[in-house]
Design a protein that fits this description.
- Strand 1 (56-59) and strand 2 form a beta hairpin.
- The protein has six helices and two strands, in the order αααββααα.
- The protein has two domains: 18-81, Arc Repressor Mutant, subunit A; 89-128.
- The mean pLDDT is 85.
- The chain is mainly alpha-helical.
- The chain has a two-stranded antiparallel sheet with strand order 1-2.
């Protein structure tokens, strides 16, 4: 195979890079199958097929389907925005401060702190967590 650019070896569990998406687009234009592209990239054929689905756009009123690297990369980045873990510590910081004060200074147990807040309705939004 004649390669103009060298492709770093794809490791299992890693996401496709922009360069690998460019290779997919180029090889599809050359008529390669997803299995052959996967062999060159060193990843699973299903990974290539999924990427082709993600980055395919319709042209000419839906008559032609083409894979576009930028569309695939944009879809990847959009999906990555929603996949990170959400930390809600800031929302609960007032409750944590309340428990710290009464636990250490007033020597309340954690159960007493929780039941007092439920009884008083001090932290109404925290009711789900208690």
């Amino acid at each position: 195979m004649d390669q103009v650019h060298s492709i770093p070896e794809h490791r299992k569990g890693k996401h496709l890079s922009f360069e690998e998406r460019v290779v997919i687009q180029t090889r599809l234009k050359d008529g390669w199958t997803p299995n052959r592209i996967a062999g060159e990239l060193g990843c699973a054929p299903n990974t290539v097929r999924n990427e082709i689905k993600r980055g395919t756009v319709t042209l000419y009123r839906g008559n032609i389907f083409r894979y576009k690297t930028k569309v695939g990369q944009a879809a990847y980045e959009k999906n990555r925005e929603a996949c990170c873990r959400r930390y809600d510590l800031l929302e609960k910081s007032a409750f944590i401060s309340y428990v710290e004060v009464h636990f250490f200074e007033d020597e309340w147990s954690l159960d007493v702190c929780a039941h007092r807040t439920l009884k008083d309705g001090t932290f109404e939004s925290m009711k789900v967590f208690l």
